[in-house]
Every structure is written in C-alpha cells, then in structure tokens.
Amino acid sequence: MPIYTAPTRDLQFVLHDVLEVQQSGLPGHDEMDPGFTEAVLDAAGKLASDVLAPLNSSGDAEGCRLENGVVYTPGGYKQAFEAMREGGWTALDCDPDYGGQGLPYVIGLATGEMFAAANMAFTMYQGLTHGAYSAIRTHGTDAQKQTWLPRMVSCEWTGTMNLTEPHCGTDLGLLRTRAEPQEDGSYLITGQKIFISAGDHDLSQNVIHLVLAKAPGGGEGTKGISLFIVPKFLLNEDRSVGERNAVSVGSLEEKMGIHGNATCVMNFDGARGWLLGDLHKGMRAMFTMMNEARLGVALQGYACAEAAYQNAVAYAKDRLQGRAVTGIANPAGPADPLIVHPDIRRSLMDQKSFIEGARALALWGAHLIDRSHNGDAEAEGLISLLTPVAKGFLTDKGFDATVQAQQVFGGHGYIEEHGMSQFVRDARIAMIYEGANGIQALDLVARKLPQGSGKDMMAFFAMIKAFCKEHGDNPRLANDFVVPLKSASKDLQAAVMFFMERGMSRPDDALSGSTDFLHLFGHVALGFMWARMAVAATLALDEENPDEAFYRNKLLTGRYYMQRQLPMTVTHLARIRTGADPVMALHVDAF
Amino acid sequence: MPIYTAPTRDLQFVLHDVLEVQQSGLPGHDEMDPGFTEAVLDAAGKLASDVLAPLNSSGDAEGCRLENGVVYTPGGYKQAFEAMREGGWTALDCDPDYGGQGLPYVIGLATGEMFAAANMAFTMYQGLTHGAYSAIRTHGTDAQKQTWLPRMVSCEWTGTMNLTEPHCGTDLGLLRTRAEPQEDGSYLITGQKIFISAGDHDLSQNVIHLVLAKAPGGGEGTKGISLFIVPKFLLNEDRSVGERNAVSVGSLEEKMGIHGNATCVMNFDGARGWLLGDLHKGMRAMFTMMNEARLGVALQGYACAEAAYQNAVAYAKDRLQGRAVTGIANPAGPADPLIVHPDIRRSLMDQKSFIEGARALALWGAHLIDRSHNGDAEAEGLISLLTPVAKGFLTDKGFDATVQAQQVFGGHGYIEEHGMSQFVRDARIAMIYEGANGIQALDLVARKLPQGSGKDMMAFFAMIKAFCKEHGDNPRLANDFVVPLKSASKDLQAAVMFFMERGMSRPDDALSGSTDFLHLFGHVALGFMWARMAVAATLALDEENPDEAFYRNKLLTGRYYMQRQLPMTVTHLARIRTGADPVMALHVDAF
C-alpha cells in the first residue's frame, strides 16, 4: 500500500519564510503565527496520513456503485467523511456567519494539498461542496445563504456543479437544459447533465446541485444561461430534509481513475430549482468562482505528484539493483539501492524540484486570492492571469511527474499492487476537468494576456524585474537564480511581443502557440518561485542556529530547477515564433 | 468503439520511396515489388481492422482469468488467433526450413505495426513467440530447432521469456532460479519468475518457456546464468504433446493496461528443461535477440499512438464546439468542429509528425536488421546503436502522443467508453518492459556510444553529413530540412563531445544526462528520417502524375516536425551540459 507523509515543514517554509503570511496585513492573517499553522497542518496531516491515505487504493479497486438509484461510495468513505466533518476541516476557511472557522484561504489550500495527495477521489466530495458554497455565498440572497450554507459548511449537505451535457462541455452556449419559471418564483429544471463529480453518494443527507440551464427570454448562446440551486431533497419549512426532488442518477461513468468519486449522469425531470444570482447571467456567476476552483485543480496536479514522489523515493532507497558507477555504495548488500544511479536521481530531482516550486506557486496564488478578497485590485489581476497558468502547467507537469514516479518502480509500477498506476490514472483527470488545459491556454492568451491592455502581464514582469534588481548583486543568488530567471523572463517577454505584433492581424498565430506560451509562463512562474525561495533560504541561513540542512537543500533543489528545467523556455519560444504556418498548413482532409 | 484503418499508403511510402527495399540488393528483397507488398499490407490491414481491432476494448474490459490453474483469454481471442495462424501471419518472416514464409523482417515489422495498433495485448502472444523462435533458431542445436520451431512458427505452440524474479529485473545477476543437471543431459528448473507476458493461456497447445537460471559452477552474478527451454507440456517420442511439466501459474497480475495479455507469476518446481546455447552464457544468448525484441517494443509505442491519433482525428472532425477564431467554418451547424481550433491542430500535428517519423525509423531499423542478417557489419553496428534510441524515444513519445490524443476528447477521453484511456494505459508498459527506458539510456551512453571507439556514432554522423552535403543546395529542402537537421545534429555532436571530455573522469557526468541524450538522439534520428522522407517526396513530385496531395502533405508534416519538435535538442543539450552537479548534489537523506 502506498505511503504518505504530510510535508508540514515544506508548507511552513512557504507560508512563513516565503509568503510571510503573518506579516501580510490581511485580516485574520496576523494570527497565523508559525506555531498555530504548524498545529493546524500537523492535525490535517495526521488525518490525511492515518485516515484518508489508507482508503486510497481500496477505494480505487472497489469504486462506487449504483444500486436501485442509490449511489454507494467505497468502504470506509463514510467514516472518513465523518472524521473530516468532526475535525472541522470542511469549515476551515468558510465564513463564520455560516459556521465556518474563518481562517485564510491560503491555510485551507495548504490542508487541501495534503487531503488531495492522500486521497484525491475522496477529497473531491468536499472540494466540490466548497465550490458550491463559494458560489452561493457570492451570488445568493441572504435567505439562500441562511438556507443552504450552514449545512454545506459542515458538509452535512454536499454540493456539485452541473455544467456539461452530452453534446457540449467547453461550448456551454450549446446547452439544452431548460428552466421553466413557476408562479411561486421557483423554476422547473429539465435536461441531462454528464460527468457530474460527486453527483450522488451516501456521504451526506442532501446534495445541492448548482445547475446551468436556459430560462426563457435570455437569447442565444451563453447569454441565455442562468444558474440554479437544485437540491436532491427539497426542504421542509424548518429547513429539514423533505421530499425527493425530480433529480436522479442515470448511470455512473466508468473512468480511467478517481474511482472513489461518483461521476454521474444526472437527469433533471422537472426538478424544482431556484435562481442563483441574476437571470441570464449564470456564466458570470460561474466565472467568479473559476479562479478558486481552478487553483484547487492545479493543487491536485502537484499533490498527486507529491504522493507518487514519496513512494518513488521509498522504493528507490529500498530496491537493490546494480552497482553505483562511482563505486559500491552498499557493500553489505548484493547490490546498491536504485537511488545511487544518476538517472534515477535525475528523475527524483525532476519530480522534487517541480513539486516544491508548484507548492509555492499554488500557495502564492491562494494568498493572492486572500488579498483580492480584501479588495487588492493588483492581486486580483495577478491571480486572474496566473490561474490558467497554474491550472494548466501544474496539472500537465504533475501528471508527467506521476509517470516518472511510476517509472522508478519499473514493472512493479505497472501492476496495481503498489498504487503507482493509480496516481497516474488519478492525476490524468486534472488536465481535463475544470476547463481542459487547451482551454486554459486559450483563456490565457486570448483573454487574460490582453485584459486591461496587458496590465496584469506588465505587473508580473515588473515584479520579476524588481526582484532581479534587488538580488542581482547578491553573490549567493546571482548566478544560480537571478541570471537564469532574467533569461527565462526575457523569453516570456519575447513571446508576448510576438503575440502583440502578430496576434492582432492573425489571431491563429497567437493561438497556435497558446499551449507553448502557457508552459513557457509556467516555467518562468516556477523559476520566480524558486528564486523567492532561494532568497528566503539564504536569509534563514543567516539567522542563528538555522535548520541548515533544510535550507541548503532548498538552494540545491532550486538550482536544479533553474539549470535543468528552466532551459525549456528557449524551446517553447522557438515553437511560438513559428506562428500558425506549420500548425495550420495541412488541409483538414489530410488528417 | 475505437476505429482503426490500416495506414498502407504510408507504409508503402517508407518501404519503397524512402528505403527502396526492392533495390537494396538483399536476398529476397528483390521480390518486394510495390504490388506484392501492397497486397501483403492490405491483407494484414484487413485482419487488423476487421478481426483484431474489434476485440481491443472488449479484451481490455474482460481481461484474462485464472481458474483452477488454467488461464483463459478474453472472448474472441481464440478465433482471432486461429485467423492469424491460418493467414500465415505468424510465419511471415520466419525461416522456410521450419515452415516460415521467408519474407524480410522489414515486412514482418510493417504488418506487426498494424497488428499492434489494432490490438496490442493480443498481438503480444505472437510477438513473444517470435522472440523465442529467434532465440532457438540462433542458439539451438539442429535437434532443438527441428523439435520446437515448426510449431512455434505456426503458433500452434507459443513462447515466452522468463527473466524477472520478485527481487530482480534489471539486475539479473541477482537471480535465484536454479537449474540442476540430470544424468540424461536435461536440467530440473526450480524458482519463481514474475511479469511473464503470455505466460499461460488457452490459445495454443503448448507454451515453450525460455528461462534464465543458474546452473552449478557458473560463478557469481550474470556470469553464472544459462538459458533453458522449459515446455509447459513435455513431448512424446513423436513430438506430440505429452505429460504436464512441473511449471504452473501462481497468479495473474492486475495491471494498468494490456489486460488481454496474461501476465503471469510462473512457478517452476523441478520442471524439466534443456540448455539452449552455451552453459553459463545465457545472458549473451538473450542479448543477441535484444535488438529485434526492443525494436518490436519501439513499434508498440508509435503503433498505439497511431491508433489513438486516428480516433482523435475522427473526434476532432465530428465534435462541434466553439467557433474558429478566423471566421465561422461550419455555418450550417451550431458550432465548428474541434479541428478548426489551432491548439487542437497543434496537438494533432504533434502526434502525426511524430508517428510518421517514428514509422520511418522503425522500418529503417528493421531494414538494418535485414542487412545485418546478411552480414553487413556497418548495418549491425548502426542498429545496435539505434536500438536503445528507438526503444526509449518511440515509447516515451508514443505514450505522450496517446495522452495528447486522449486530451482531444476532453472528458470523453477519461471515461472508458471511447477507448482512449486504454490506448494510454496500454502504451505505458512499452516504456517499462524489455528494459525500462532509463536502462535504454544507460545502454546507449555507457555501452553503445563508446563501443568500437565510437565507430557507430561516427558512422551515424557521417551519414547525416553526407546527406546534408548532397541536399544542402536543393532549394526545396535546404531551409526546411537540411538547415534544421544540421543544427540538431551539431547539438548531438556537442553532447557526445561533452561525454567524451567528462565521462571518462567522472562517469556520473555522462549518466546524469543519459535520458536527455537518448531524447536528443531520438529527435535527430526523427529529423533525419523526415529529411529523407522529404527527399523522397520531392523526387516523387517530379515524376509524371504524382499523388500530389500525398507528397505535399509529407513535406508539410515534415516541416512541422523540423520547426516545432526539433528545437528540443537545444534544451536537451543545455541539460546535459550541466553534468552531474545539480543531479547528484543532494544527500540521499534529503529525498
């Protein structure tokens, strides 16, 4: 069975040494002293390791089942979900007005990493509820908030997002689900939705579906779409769970992974629902939650990689195979452990340097969301720009990292016994859902890059420029971090220039390079994170009695990223500069 | 259910326009006129599309099962295997002395691509038999060949390779299976082998295991290893199948993919076996088959990608989502097909340009094996050098291509219904078995590169240099093909120089860059293949009444590879040049 150990020390490093959350001047953040956050992370980590992780393989093997219209989750899920609720983990960063603990989102994300790493399929039940909670809290009326939120914060009721239909996912303008207004102000919802994660299950008393549908008079395309609250069970006057609504599970999807999560076909047959937010402005309501939801998926990408990496390390230290080329390392044994071999070490360093950089980016993103919730417009612009980068890059690279971790096991990685196949199969979905990564690249190039005449992009470059100026003369940072960051950042600027010059007249020129641009940006973002971590590490090493090995290892891991990963920006730029010609040259019939 | 269409035209192009097999002066090749090979490929393609492909999804879903010691393959496999046998496909490139048809290996590989693409798990039963056939044919005594080969050529009996044990796969020196010599010259084999593909099943009357084991007096490590023929059923005097040997299936592995192939734990409990080849020289006997076996796995990598690509194309043409940024392409429909979008086109071009380049490399490799069988030492050296490149690069990139094809389907790629998940899960094993790709990289850098003082590598460079000289002034080829090939080849030479300068004194410096070197080499090899295909296409376009669209598309697809894939060599070289420092800097405890 795969192991999982909570990376509390690394999370603490990012929270305090790098982001300095306690000093950020945000409401509630001043209470985030290292002792407090360590206690929170330790407790969450214990739940992740002791309760969630042991159910990961078994949940994958058992999967969910649909019997007589009722969905059952794998054995042990109910007890584990109860433990999540009782520990208050579902309420951590929720509004105290509805029973939440009111902690910053950045702490919620840090605990979320551990839960997702330990058991991604299981953690989705809570994750989707949090998304629905955010939507209702942002767009709901006071009455709606009072009605739905308290029991969603506690996860007595869970939530879903119902967007996709059989013929459309990305292009929601095509959707067919209808909402018929009733005299009492409610609507009757009719249509079929597919790929509904946590669509139904036995973990909660009620499931609160948020459903995109078309109400009369909204016009064609996405303009006519509204968002509705459609509960599985209608509520009685006293808000207790009442009669069943006309919503049912058509079937469960058979998937490549996340078997522990029930992916449902949902049938709405005149189900009663209530408008959430403004009529015909459902897409806007959806989009306000996107940054948070997409950052949550970005997190899954590197969290899965972290869990897979930990197991690859354990195997590489344990498995004896061959001898070190530089001399026998384990004379007492019949062979040396795998970890002595440079190519294994290269693989582990690829994984480790990615994961730690990704963690910093995700937590920085969460902190930017905390800032933006506090009215910081620059933070809001930045996170809006960085969200598709984090979602696309961290899930693409997170998947690659799970494949590398699996490879360390050789043939033992391909059989299901060690759980490495599951990490790969689970991580794969993060590249697809919450907007497939090609859509993230489109969002980045066509929407986020030009928004506000490129001010967010310029703010990002200004930040890197200021950083390089501040630390360019520091001999401990200059060659290993500042120089490569500057060089990679120049590649990113050159790509932006190319898009500006060519994209206006020939939009295909920009869109042909969109995925390369997202990855180029991702590398620069992780390079920036590593440079910031390096500054934090050198400062910490100057303190009295530092945890010397920890901080030196950060510098060495960061240097690896700068030297061996960051040079990818050159290739991405070269590809982007070829424009649309090579990409679009073939006639459709030639494929 | 996924579709599969045999790429006969593309195979014919490589065989005749590029490799000019008929003019190669090899025995038997002069009969390979285009009409003949087309007939062979058409017939094989029909079997692949009509019989094998329809069993791919069902075989994956059903898997193999072990009941009372008997292994059953999925429904339809027996009939399909019968069809393979009856069509003579198992005997195609086998020795006529044992019932084979004596066709060149290059044709065997071309048909093999189609079989593997249509149903990889199924085709492995024949593939492993072919490997065992080759081993016995090369190392067996006349009596052994007469005894075993005829029914293996016909696949009435199938074969296996028994190498891996629970505690060792790569490091076979550690293996524990013992061979006790008997007075009659036979041996009794005792031990446990794992991961034995096609180890047992219901498709043949007998299973001929080739088993690596240690016989007394051989010394420690790999030196003491011998290879034995151990049949499932012993033979009677008249060579008919007799009593059961003491070999049994312990269990079937649950795997990520290739569910239709029975991956067995094999228990040898004093099973009777006969020495194959020289005593204590089993490793050498294994290695003589390696080039062929590894090229067969390389083929699986791009064959899986081809099948996945075909389905991605069909989906991209069919699925309506969004509108082309350059203007509506499908005014009659509610949206445009996916294929209008540049990022989808980029993904399809990545897949297509890789697959066609990979096909050329694999067929060239097979042709080099045909040459080496005919005593061509340069060809033997070249294929020995190229084998780890083809195996590692085509399976790594082939897997990536299946992931890209799956991504085109969005959420529909993640559910099992469309078969895209299976292509990814099946392709994954090719990176692992027949020597994990890290081992291929090690073999390349530590063994193949320096062998004969680097003469094979020099021969490869000389070939590229001559090519560039010959075609550098051709205006239709220079900028698009020759210039980028020359540049990429220089990167490869620079990497070789780095290894030569540093690798002797610090072997870790070379081994830390081994995987990057393999990929750098792979890109140059595919770039060379594309340049050769471009030459063939321009020559064909000069003929009267050429198939103009076909050849122009070759040039455009090749140009894509040169412009958008080949620039990866820059990044690989940059990584290699960092040497071992960043890779080996962390203490083992820091992981």
Automatic annotation (TrEMBL), chains A, B:
Q: Does the keyword Oxidoreductase apply?
A: yes
Q: Which residues form the Acyl-CoA dehydrogenase/oxidase C-terminal domain?
A: 281-447
Q: Where in this chain does the record put each Acyl-CoA dehydrogenase/oxidase N-terminal domain?
A: 74-156
Which coenzyme or cofactor does it need? FAD
Pfam families (alphabetical): Acyl-CoA_dh_1, Acyl-CoA_dh_C, Acyl-CoA_dh_M, Acyl-CoA_dh_N
For this protein, the record's InterPro entries field holds: Acyl-CoA_dh-like_C_dom (IPR025878), Acyl-CoA_Oxase/DH_mid-dom (IPR006091), Acyl-CoA_Oxase/DH_mid-dom_sf (IPR046373), AcylCo_DH-like_C (IPR036250), AcylCo_DH/oxidase_C (IPR009075), AcylCoA_DH/ox_N (IPR013786), AcylCoA_DH/ox_N_sf (IPR037069), AcylCoA_DH/oxidase_NM_dom_sf (IPR009100)
Looking at the keywords, is Kinase present?
no
Q: Where is the Acyl-CoA oxidase/dehydrogenase middle domain?
A: 161-269
* Acetyl-CoA dehydrogenase-like C-terminal domain: residues covered: 460-586
Alphabetical keyword list: FAD, Flavoprotein, Oxidoreductase
Give the family per the record: Belongs to the acyl-CoA dehydrogenase family.
Annotated protein name in UniProt: Acyl-CoA dehydrogenase C-terminal domain-containing protein
Annotated source species: Paracoccus spongiarum
